[in-house]
UniProtKB/TrEMBL annotation:
This is Cytochrome c, mono-and diheme variants. It comes from Frateuria terrea. PROSITE patterns: CYTC. It comes from the Bacteria. Heme c 2 binds at residues 206, 209-210. One of its GO terms (molecular function) is electron transfer activity.
Amino acid sequence: MSAARLFGFGCLLALLAVCAACSHDRDEAAPSTVKLGERMSPGPWGQISRGRYLVRAGDCAACHTAEGGAPFAGDRAIPTPFGTIYSSNITPDPDTGIGRWTDEDFYRAMHEGIDREGDHLYPAFPYPWYTRLSRDDVLAIKAYLDTLTPVRQAHRPDELPWPLDQRGVMAVWNGMYFDAGTFQPDPKRSPQWNRGAYLVKGLGHCGACHSDKNFAGATDKDDPLTGGFAENAFAPSLAGGTRDGLGSWPEQDIVQYLGTGRNGRTSAAGPMAEVVEDSTQYLSKPDLQAIAVYLKSLPARKDSAVASVDKDTLDRGAALYVDNCEGCHLKQGQGEPGAFPPLRQSSAVQAKSADTLINVILNGSRIPRTAAEPTGLAMQGFADHLDDAQIADLTTYIRNAWGNRGEAVDAGHVEDLRKSLRQSPGG
């Protein structure tokens, strides 16, 4: 987001805040058998086991664990278009964690985005999705977190410009964009579909990455899960498009991808690789199947026109592909099953933004290590080997070869993305 756009957004929020003040102040312990809306089993261990499963399903460890830090102790830098937010400590430490939080405190944070002290949380903590969770699921999560080893880790101040560093501004944001409320099953749909919707719209918070955002960082409710930016990557569409969505994927491909990080069509890369390693590989087969059923029900968005690419660009890109990529991904982009993902007819390659593909070319990637697929093969990056113009040509070629169709990439965009990746936390 440009500085001018950020300043304009800050001024708008400040004005709205003033107006608002003036108007009045796969443990495998069987949670797979728990149906949506069913009360948890009696006894603390049943609740704790279920909570552990839900914590994994919500990918809580990923955001609340800094690189090299203690699990769930927070302090991980989370890049946003507005600045860097540092995750909080959710171990039961009484001074720096949630050790003094009651069940009501925790439920309010998950359901309303307000912490124990009454401060508004930033939606980098995905309460706009967690609000859909049932009370029983929230309390099971709290019961599990209470069993963790307490870690003393104070919260690092977030790096946000004024007025976004004032948490009270979030009251205005919530009034404009946040709809609190638990998930309500659709009686016209099957229990399996509703379970998938509950996981995708709630605990999985898939829309936090896979949906477009407006200037204020709120997701597009009218066109959800059709792709969006998050953590310097583009999360592709999960809707029904055959070119850049899941329209051509059978349910089993979705189940395999979420469970192993790969299938015959693609491999997880970027932030999604971490999601598979830390979260979705541990989901039960019934839950993975339910997610697949729900995602396959999403309609395709209208396919936008893609401008043709000039022959000289494709010729330059083709030569670069032969020199740098063909050895692994093969001449027709078909890849090598179980080792190197295919590039042709790939929805990720043909996504409306090429940023994730550019990121992979620049910095390389590693296929997730999972229990089912432990190898975790890695690809080298080409940031030091290819310049911005070459990476633009190569990306454009891959997005338009072998029947693929995607917008061309220019060198200026690669340059900007390279700088952003270098300056981002952990970059």
